[in-house]
């Protein structure tokens, strides 16, 4: 099954991949060549550190290529589902008890970042919201117990 990802999320992954291939890979090849010139490779810490970094970079390149080839890219701005919460929705939730508002966008697992307000579609919060409408109330099991939230708004931004 293909993994859903927003257009913006796919672009971020492509940019990281391009940076690794065009900047980081050549830098590490140069660092390995310079470290080799220092002589005995068995006791050459610079060489071993550069080789280790090369392994990390090559692994990340393979991972990104695999993720992008298996991704189903969805243009959120073109979704036309009204005020129903589906993948890609930007949702404002209000805590029923405190009126504190939180804003989240439901994204693919590959691009989730809670610090940026991007929550994975597989997360408990996103699963509770999927299929609901503006004005609906959801209950989320939090570490401190159940919390009740009202869906204040649903938007489909790019």
TrEMBL record:
Upper taxonomic lineage: Bacteria, Pseudomonadati, Pseudomonadota, Gammaproteobacteria, Lysobacterales
Stated role: Necessary for efficient RNA polymerase transcription elongation past template-encoded arresting sites. The arresting sites in DNA have the property of trapping a certain fraction of elongating RNA polymerases that pass through, resulting in locked ternary complexes. Cleavage of the nascent transcript by cleavage factors such as GreA or GreB allows the resumption of elongation from the new 3'terminus. GreA releases sequences of 2 to 3 nucleotides.
Domain Transcription elongation factor GreA/GreB C-terminal residue range list: 83-156
One GO process term, biological-process aspect: DNA-templated transcription elongation
Record-annotated Transcription elongation factor GreA/GreB N-terminal domain positions: 4-73
Signal sequence bounds: none
Gene: greA
MF terms (GO), sorted A to Z: DNA binding; RNA polymerase binding; translation elongation factor activity
Name of one Pfam family that matches: GreA_GreB_N
Keywords associated with the record: DNA-binding, Elongation factor, Protein biosynthesis, Transcription, Transcription regulation
Superkingdom as given in the UniProt entry: Bacteria
PANTHER family referenced in this protein's UniProt entry, alphabetically: TRANSCRIPTION ELONGATION FACTOR GREA
Protein name, as recorded: Transcription elongation factor GreA
Family: Belongs to the GreA/GreB family.
Membrane-spanning intervals of the chain: none
């Amino acid at each position: 099954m293909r993994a859903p990802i927003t257009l913006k999320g796919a672009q971020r992954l492509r940019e990281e991949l391009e940076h690794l291939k065009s900047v980081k890979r050549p830098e590490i090849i140069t660092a390995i060549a310079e470290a080799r010139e220092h002589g005995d490779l068995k006791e050459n810490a610079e060489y071993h550190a550069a080789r280790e970094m090369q392994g990390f970079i090559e692994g990340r390149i393979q991972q990104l290529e695999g993720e992008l080839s298996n991704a189903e890219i969805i243009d959120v701005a073109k979704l036309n589902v009204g005020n129903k919460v589906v993948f890609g929705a930007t949702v404002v939730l209000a805590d029923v008890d405190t009126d504190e508002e939180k804003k989240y966008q439901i994204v693919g697992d590959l691009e989730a970042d809670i610090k940026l307000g991007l929550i994975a579609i597989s997360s408990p919060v996103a699963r509770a919201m999927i299929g609901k409408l503006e004005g609906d109330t959801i209950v989320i099991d939090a570490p401190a117990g159940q919390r009740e939230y009202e869906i204040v708004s649903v938007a489909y931004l790019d």
